[in-house]
Description:
By secondary structure, the protein is α/β, with parallel strands linked by helices. 67% of the residues lie in helices and 9% in strands. The strands form three sheets. A six-stranded mixed β-sheet has the order 8-9-10-5-11-12, with helices on both faces. Strands 4-3-6-7 form a four-stranded antiparallel β-sheet, covered by helices on one side. Strand 3 and strand 4 form a beta hairpin.
Amino acid sequence: MKNFVRLVRSAWPYRYRFGVSIACALMVALLSFMELGAVLPVLKILINNDNPQRWISTKIDSIAENIEQLGARREELARVERAFAAGGASAAPLSDRFRELEALKAGILDELQERRRRVDLPDQHGISSQFLAQTAGEIQGLQRQERIADARWEELTRGSYWLRDGARRSLDRRLAEIDRKRDAEAWWQRLYQGLKPAIYKYLPSDQFNTLSMLMGMVLIGVMIKGLFTFCQEVLVADVMQHTLFDLRNLFFRRTTNLDLASFSEQGSSDLMARFTNDMDSFGQGLNTILSKLIREPLRAVICITGAFWFNWRLTCLTLVVVPISAYTTYRVGRVMKRAVRRSLESMSSIYKILQETFQGIKVVKAFGMERVERRRFFLETKNFYRKSIRVAMIDSMSDPVLEMLTLITVAIALLSGSYLVLKQSIFLQIGPFKLQLASQVMAIEDLLTLYAIMAGVSDPIRKLSNVNSKLQRAAAASDRICALMDREPQVVESPRAVESPAHRRTIEFDDVHFSYPGRDRLLQGITLTVRHGETVALVGPNGCGKSTLMNLLPRFWDVDSGTIRIDGVDVREIRGRSLRRLIGVVPQETILFQDTIARNIAYGDPGANREAVVEAAKRSYAHQFITALPDGYDTVIGERGHGLSGGQRQRLALARAMLRNPSILILDEATSAVDIQDEALIRKAIEEFSRGRTTFLISHSMGAIQFADRIVLIDDGRIVAVGTDQELKRTSPLYRRLHEIHYRRESA
Ligand SMILES: Nc1ncnc2c1ncn2[C@@H]1O[C@H](COP(=O)(O)OP(=O)(O)OP(=O)(O)O)[C@@H](O)[C@H]1O
C-alpha cells in the first residue's frame, strides 16, 4: 500500500478540485439521509393520521414539556442548593422526597397499565377511533408525567450524592447547564411558534395531500442529489485523468532516463505492460479512492450519525460486528494483493509473447512456427485465466462474507428493536442480563425509521465491498510501477560533468575492462589511441566484443575499470547530451520510426531544413530511391521501416548520422545490406564524409575496411593486432584466416 499511497499523492496539485468534489459528496450524503429521513413523516401520516399542523403543535408541546421538565430539575437542584447553603441538608428531608416520588411513580405506572389494557381490548372493532386517539393521548400524558418524575428522581439522587461529597461547584455547573438547555429549547420554541402560522396557512392538512407534498419534496431532493452526484463524478474523473497524465509522463521521463542495462534487463514488453495494464489498474484504484471511498463512507457516516441521534444504544449494539468485518477485509486484502500481483506478471508475459510474435512474424511464418507460437500464447493465456479466476474467487468469496455480516447486523437491530416495541420496554432482557437500549419506549414508526436508516448504512457498505479488491489490484500495480520508477540508472552523470571538448586531438581507450551483468568478463585490457581524423576498422570473429567496445564510447554502458578519454577528458566527466552530440552512430540494427522519410532523417536534428535533409540523403545515396516513392520525402514509412528494403533502411540511417555532422562517427555494419552495385558508391561517400572526423568502422566485409587508416583485430575481448591491411596479412594468422573466409564467400 505504501507505493499506492505514494502514487496517489501525485493528485495533490488537484486538491482544490477534489475539495469541491468532496463538498458535492457531502451534499449527496446529506440528501440521501434526508430521503431516508422522509420515512418517518410518511409513517406518521399513515399510522397516526398526522399532518404538518398536528406535527408543529406536538413539537411545540414537547418543547414546552422539556422546558417544564428542565424547570422541575432546576427547582429540585435549587432546593438542594438552598438546603446545602443552610448548613448541609440532612438525609431525612431527602428520603421523604424519595418516598413521595416513589408513590407518585407507582400511581402513574398503574394508570399507564390500565390505559394500555383498554387499548389492547380483544374486541377492537367495537372501539371507536376517537376512543383510541383519546386513550393514546392519555398514555402520552402519563408517559410525560413519568419522565418528569424520573428526572426529579435523578436530580435528587445526584443532589444527595453531591451533598454527601459537598461538591458545591458541580451543583452550580449543573444549574448553569440546565439554564443553557432551557435557553436553547426556548429558542426552538420561538422558531416553531413563528413557523406555525405559515404551516397552518400554506401546508395541506389532508392526509393524502400531505403525502403528495412530501413525495414532491423527495423528488426535488433526488434531482438535486443527481446534480451533485454528476458534478462529483465529473470532478473526480478530471482529477484522476490529470493525475494519470502527470504520472504517465513522469514514468516515461524516468524510463527514458534509464540506461541500456535496465532496458535489456526489463524487456520492452514488460515495460509496455507496466505503462498500460498496470497504469490502468492504478487508475481504477485511484478512481475508487477519489469517488467511492469518499462518497460512500460519507453516506454511511451520516446515516450512522442519524441512527445514533435516533437511538445510540441500539445503534451501538448493531455495530458489534464491525471489527469482525474490518478484520475479514484486512485478511482478504492481503491474499488478494498476492493473487493480483501474479496475474499482472502473467499479463506481462502475454505482452511479451504478443510483441515477439508480431515483431518477428516473418521469422514465425518462414519457419512455420505459427502452431508453436499459438501454443505458447494458449498456455500463457490459460495461466492468466487461472490467476484471474483465483482473483475473482477471492473477490467473490469476500462479498458473501461481508453480506452475511451485514445481515447479522440487520438481524441484531431487527430482533432487539422489535423486542423493545413488543414488550413496550426500554430494556432488553438476555438471561440474567438487562441491557438498556432506549431512553424511552419506542413506537413502531420510530423503529421502522431506524431500520430505514440502518438500511441506508448497509447500502454504501455493500457498494464498498468490492472496493478492497480494486485497491489491492491498484496496490500491486503501484508496486510494479514504483519498482521501475525507483530504479537508479547505473550510468549516471557526474555532478562535476563538463561540456564535451571540441574533439581535435585523440580518443584513448586505456586498459578498458568490461563485462555485462551476470556474464563473464568480455573486454579485457583494451588499450588503443586513435588520432583525430583517423579511420579505424574493428574486425574480429562474431561475439568478440567489437560493438560492445563502441557502446562504451557514448556511455551506453560504463567501463568496469580503465578509462576512455576524448581529448584527454574522461567520458564519465562529460555531460551525457553533450557527449552524444559529438558522436554519430549507425547501429547494426537499423531503427526507423513510423513517420515521414524526411523526419526520420532529421531525427537527431529536428530543426534541420529540407535542403539539409536532401543533402544528407544524397550523400548516403538514398535520394534516388526516395524521390522514386509516391510522396518522396513525405512518404510515411511503416513501423520499424516496414515497406523499405534492408539496404534502403541502412542508407536512411546513414543519412541521419551524416545530417548531425558529428566529430566522431561509429558505423557498425552500416553497409551490410547494401547491394554490390551501390556498395562502392556508399563506401566512397563514407570515405569522403569521414574526412576530418574520427571514424570507427565495424565490418565483416574486408572490402568495406580497405580505406581505413588502421585495422584493429580483436579476439576474445582483447586486441590481438593493429596495423594496415598489408601489415596484418603479414603478421596475423587470425586476420589471414578471416580474409580467406571472406574471399572464399565472395567468390562462392
Ligand atoms: N546487452 C547484453 N547483455 C549481455 N550480453 C551481451 C549483451 N550484448 C552483447 N552481449 C554479449 O557480448 C558478447 C559480445 O557482443 P558484441 O555485440 O560486442 O560482439 P561483436 O564483436 O560486435 O559481434 P558481431 O560481429 O557478431 O556483431 C556476445 O557474446 C554477446 O552475447
